[in-house]
Amino acid sequence: MEEILQKLNLSPVNSGAGTGTEWLECGGDILESVSPVDGRIIARVKQASNEDYERVMDRAVSAFDAWSGVPAPLRGEVVRRMGNAMRERKRDLAALLSLEVGKIRSEAEGEIQEMIDIADFATGQSRMLYGFTMQSERPGHRMYEQWHPLGPIGVITAFNFPVAVWSWNAMIALIAGDTVVWKPSSKVPLTSLATMKIVGRVIEEQGLPEGILSVVIGRGRDVGERLVVDRRLPLISATGSVAMGRKVAQAVSARLGRSLLELGGNNAVIVTPDADLSLAVRAILFGAVGTAGQRCTTTRRVIAHKSIFDSLANALVAAYRKVPIGNPLEEGVLMGPLIDREAVAKMQKALEALKAQGGRVLYGGEVLSGGLYDAGTYVTPAICEARSDYPIVRQETFAPILYMIPYETLEEAIEYHNSAPQGLSSAIFTNDLREAEYFLSHRGSDCGIANVNIGTSGAEIGGAFGGEKETGGGREAGSDVWKTYMRRQTTTINWSGEMPLAQGVRFDV
Ligand code: UN1
Q1: Distance from chain centroid for Cα 72
Q2: What 3-state class would DSSP assign to 157?
């Protein structure tokens, strides 16, 4: 443990606020980062006080002044270097991520890869911040639009993807000319500090403005609450629960700011009669058990046709039995712990609710004990038989619980599918073209992500990521998401000697 900390320039007690190169003598309380793997404290963080927050914000504001004037392709070059710095430290950073979040090594490395991928993507994008030109209705006029940097932006991230989601936002924001103030989850402060130190090296080497990136770890919700009401931040990007998102949305919209929300998911896979069941089982297994069910894209519901319901359920139970559960840093383990004991208690409560509402646990759901398991954070993943109208099925429980729901007609399956209040990710397993197209049509899935013959989780960064309804409507990462981080300006230039008005209006004296 000490070795990983040292390699990543972390100490037993770390400053919780800084710009990657400069760290403040923070005035707040001490925060302990407790590993869900064995319940031990990894290291401590001295949290930011209100004054520390102000100091960080001042830097982000003055850095914006300088950074927004750097040509976008040169900003892209900086992001390219940041991606390379992450590449060099991938293994070490993934080791810390495993320890702090509890995800298995391969998934932790996947998360760092996601950071690198978005840096590469952003580098290319930096030369493609395209605006349209339009045909003016007035003679001798030219119309076009251009995209300007937006300002310093606030990014709030969740514990389950502590660094990738920041990178989706930060790398794109940087090429857009924005500066970024980051409030990571207080459950996992160290991985974010280590990441800031890695990109900080690039900031230092390149002599870049202090404060283009910064991190503030503050007591509980304090910093988050200051961030969302701060008028200096025209955009707040927040990832987390629906309850948190609702508060952020209200606070940001009260000051007419812009928010980008990526909230809960209640992702379902529809499995039709002629689906390739072995493919479906593999995808559902990773979707439901991967990251111990703690992704916002985790598969939480399987809506299976009656004719294949039992064989699919049996195949899933057989697969679940084989999942090695244990220390996520060990080779061969596929499922680590949940983030903390509170998450385990919530999972237990959800299973109780399911039974009270008429459902049945087909497999798993136990809290494990003995040896490492005594950390109290290890469970067996659960498969349950349920109905789509149970209140518990409509909620997102951030744990490995899979609800299996039988259906008869595809229309019914879609109805069940769309009855969830959240709308992030979805999938259908079918070899029937008509079923697949129906699912992808406007009558089909109502989610931001809709897949065919692949699962709900593990999206690539190239697509826009996010969802509808209670998921919050935001989009992050690829496609044309960069536009959210810039302000659009429509310009009309008159190069004629006349002053014609649009819509044929006459106003001559
Ligand atoms: C999240 O859980 O907040 O699609 C993000 C996925 C990952 C990102 C998940 N690429 O599962």
Answers
A1: 25
A2: coil
ipTM of the complex: 0.98
pLDDT of 330 over the 60 cut = yes
For ligand 1, atom 6, which residue shows the shortest CA distance? 458
Helix (H, G, I), strand (E, B) or coil at 282: helix
Q: Is 185 in the pocket of ligand 1 (CB under 6 A)?
A: no
354: helix, coil or strand?
A: helix
Closest CA to 25 of 58, 52, 61: 52
Of 328, 362, 265, whose CA–CA distance to 109 is shortest? 328
Report the alpha-carbon distance of residue 308 to residue 321 in Å, rounded: 20
- 3-state SS assignment for residue 263: coil
The token duo for 189 is 């402060």
> What single-letter amino acid sits at 375?
A
- Note the helical H segments in 290-430: 306-321, 341-356, 410-418
Q: What is the pTM of this model?
A: 0.97
Vertex 115 angle, CA 110 and 118, to 5°: 120
Q: For tokens 């536009």, what's the residue?
A: 483
| Cβ proximity of 155 and 183 under 8 Å | yes
Q: Which of 166, 173, 223, 153 is nearest to 194 (CA)?
A: 166
Please tell me the distance from the alpha carbon of residue 250 to that of residue 353, in angstroms, as a whole number.
Answer: 30
Query: How confident is the model over 3-42, as pLDDT tens digits?
Result: 999 999 999 999 999 999 999 999 999 999 999 999 999 9
CB of 471 within 6 A of ligand 1: the answer is: no
The full 3-state SS of 1-54, as one line of letters, equals CHHHHHHCCCCCEEECEECCCCECCCCCCEEEEECCCCCCEEEEEECECHHHHH
Euclidean distance between the first and final Cα of the chain, in Å? Answer: 81
Atom from ligand 1 closest to the CA of residue 114: 10
SS3 for 133? Answer: strand
457 Cβ inside 6 Å of ligand 1: yes
Residue 344 pLDDT > 60, yes or no? yes
- Give the strand pairing for 213-216 and 17-18: antiparallel
Any catalytic annotation for residue 51? no
Catalytic one of 100, 210, 262, 396: 262
Q: What ligand 1 atom has the least distance to the C-alpha of 265?
A: 2
pLDDT tens digit sequence for 234-279: 999 999 999 999 999 999 999 999 999 999 999 999 999 999 999 9
Provide the phi-psi class of 70: left if phi over 0, else alpha when psi is between -120 and 50, else beta.
beta
Interatomic CA distance for residues 87 and 125, integer angstroms: 19
Burial track 68-92 (b if 16+ CB lie within 10 A, e otherwise): bebebeebbbbbbbbbebbeebbeb
Task: Give the model's pLDDT for residue 222.
Answer: 82
The residues, any chain, with a CB within 8 Å of residue 74's CB and separated by 6 or more, are: none
Hey, which of 116, 161, 266, 471 would you mutate to test ligand 1's pocket, going by the most ligand atoms within 8 Å of its Cβ? Answer: 161
